[in-house]
Amino acid sequence: MFIQIAIYGLLIALFPLAIVWASKDSNKYRKLIAVTLFLTFDLIIFGAFTRLTDSGLGCPDWPGCYGQANPFQAHNEIKAAEALMPTGPVTVMKAWIEMIHRYLATCVGVLITAQMIIAWWRRSSLRHSPWLATTLFVLVLIQGAFGKWTVTMKLQPIIVTIHLLLALTLLSLLVWAWMRESPPLVVSVQAWLRRLLPIVFLVLLAQIALGGWVSTNYAALACHDYPSCNGEVIPDLDFEHAYVLWRELGKTASGDYLPHSALVTIQWVHRSFAWIVFLSLGLTAFLCRKHEVLRANSNAIIAVLLMQFLSGVATVYFSWPLAIAVLHNAGAALLVLLLSMLNYRARAST
Fold first, then answer.
1. Contact partners, residue 288, CB within 8 Å, separation at least 6
2. Fewer Cβ within 10 Å of end Cβ, the chain: N or C?
3. How many CB atoms lie within 10 A of CB 36?
4. What is the mean pLDDT of the chain?
5. Which residues are catalytic?
6. CA distances for 278 relative to 187, 221, 304, 326, angstroms
């Protein structure tokens, strides 16, 4: 079964590999990184779609589906589970969503493996050391392990949140790998601004971790209004249960049901910290706009920040529609991508 799934991933990967091979780009290695970056971004969005449609347990085992390599072969088992719980975690549609996510993840793994092999094979002619490509390979293996634990540990919030953060780390490192293969830019950035950008990047990751904690605990609608939370500026907060990391989904550390006040706390902290991110990232992007080479990148960050604010508020007001929720997740990934580019350009400045 594992070999069958690996073959599916390899077959899917043949298409982007063929695009790279047929490309007229003089630097095909850079083209391979760019294609991998694009598909990783897509995979993160599809992963968000998988989570938001409650398809994470659409196939309740790993790496296959009821011991089979695809939902066609497991059709009888899936239909039986769906008949028992028509609105439960296992349906034919959710099984396909989950397995497509796994096939795409395997495809990205194949492409990153190809990057590492090429980086070591051509290490004498490539501009940079192959160790970043090797780091990406190790990271994708760790990410695969967390993908497995996401299923086998029944969507435990800390596992799912780490899975998300690892995906975004992979995205950021792919940006770095792609940009260092690009022609260098001539730009002079003040030392204090170069030091500020990594700090702002960590602030963004902290907010994404808080947002992941909201999503993995199903706390998106714990506050039904905005800017207040259930009619209060500061509601009753329950930090005792909200941020206990090692616990089952929907349960406290002691095994009781998670109180609603904990979900309110998770939502309120995320939306409150969002203002820190909005101001710090917005101001940093505004300061970077003074450099002509960084202007387009900075303008894109400001535009996505505004989109994030609007999509976050719309998620509350329209009671968490799927399309807007996926858009909000995509905006977070896009901010990571854009801020990684900005960090690289500032660091590579003269």
1. 189, 193, 197, 294, 295, 297, 298, 342, 346
2. C
3. 25
4. 93
5. 98
6. 26, 21, 10, 19
